[in-house]
């Protein structure tokens, strides 16, 4: 296989990498790399991988929080765009994204055709998913008030995680198409770590990865 036929999948922790590996099976088409937690680690790790190899697609995959009424635990959210929802400034009128400051954009569009194809194939396999904005944050949301502010800032946002925008920034730098998927482990809102259903989310991630092989 030509080297640039390969696909790079980046996760934040080993448990996510293992779930994806179980799903995609024994194939050389995919490199699955753990790049750490947070946007900075994701950007650095993804850029390092892209500098050392040739890939036709980057996928950031892992577990994430789901916004109420949008994505339930155990379902999947595929990003229509990645939004760095805490990249900006506080003003007297509230938080504004970096876009309004004139220093670039907090939004990166994903490869929409691929996101849509993956969602369609998941649906055919009886797996619930939606395509919607995913917010990238530095601090996991822990109150209903912050969850509500994020929903206002990014209408239609369905999931929250900590790496998408960073990995997307690296992919953009290397002119490589990018998508993000999150398997929902918890609700975005008041923090209760005991309520996180990590096992369910990892099973959903594995199932989504199995379908991915037919999509890309
Ligand atoms: O403890 C474990 O077994 C375990 C297995 C897989 C993943 C984890 C993590 O804690 C991964 C951290 C990762 O999770 C994302 N995440 C999940 N829920 C949220 C959320 O509500 N808000 C923001 N991020 C969330 C995040 O991308 C972290 O990188 C543990």
Automatic annotation (TrEMBL):
Assigned keywords, A-Z: Glycosidase, Hydrolase, Menaquinone biosynthesis
Entry annotated with the keyword Lipid metabolism: no
Transmembrane parts of this sequence: none
GO biological process, one term: menaquinone biosynthetic process
Assigned GO CC terms: cytosol
EC number: 3.2.2.26
Pathway: Quinol/quinone metabolism; menaquinone biosynthesis
InterPro entries assigned to the protein according to its UniProt record, in alphabetical order: FL_hydrolase_MqnB (IPR019963), Nucleoside_phosphorylase_d (IPR000845), Nucleoside_phosphorylase_sf (IPR035994)
Protein name per the record: Futalosine hydrolase
């Amino acid at each position: 296989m030509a080297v640039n036929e390969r696909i790079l999948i980046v996760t934040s922790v080993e448990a996510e990498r293992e779930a994806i590996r179980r799903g995609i099976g024994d194939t050389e088409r995919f490199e699955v790399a753990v790049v750490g937690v947070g946007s900075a680690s994701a950007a650095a790790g993804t850029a390092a991988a892209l500098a050392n190899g040739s890939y036709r697609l980057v996928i950031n995959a892992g577990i994430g929080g789901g916004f109420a009424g949008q994505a339930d635990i155990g379902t999947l959210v595929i990003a229509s765009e990645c939004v760095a929802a805490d990249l900006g400034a506080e003003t007297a009128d509230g938080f504004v994204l970096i876009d309004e400051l004139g220093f670039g954009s907090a939004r990166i569009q994903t490869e929409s055709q691929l996101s849509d194809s993956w969602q369609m194939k998941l649906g055919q396999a009886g797996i619930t998913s939606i395509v919607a904005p995913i917010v990238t944050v530095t601090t996991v949301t822990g109150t209903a008030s912050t969850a509500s502010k994020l929903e206002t800032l990014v209408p239609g946002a369905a999931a929250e995680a900590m790496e998408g925008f960073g990995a997307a920034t690296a992919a953009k730098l290397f002119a490589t198409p990018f998508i993000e998927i999150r398997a929902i482990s918890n609700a975005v809102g008041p923090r209760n770590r005991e309520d996180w259903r990590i096992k369910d989310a990892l099973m959903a991630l594995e199932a989504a990865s199995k379908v991915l092989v037919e999509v890309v």
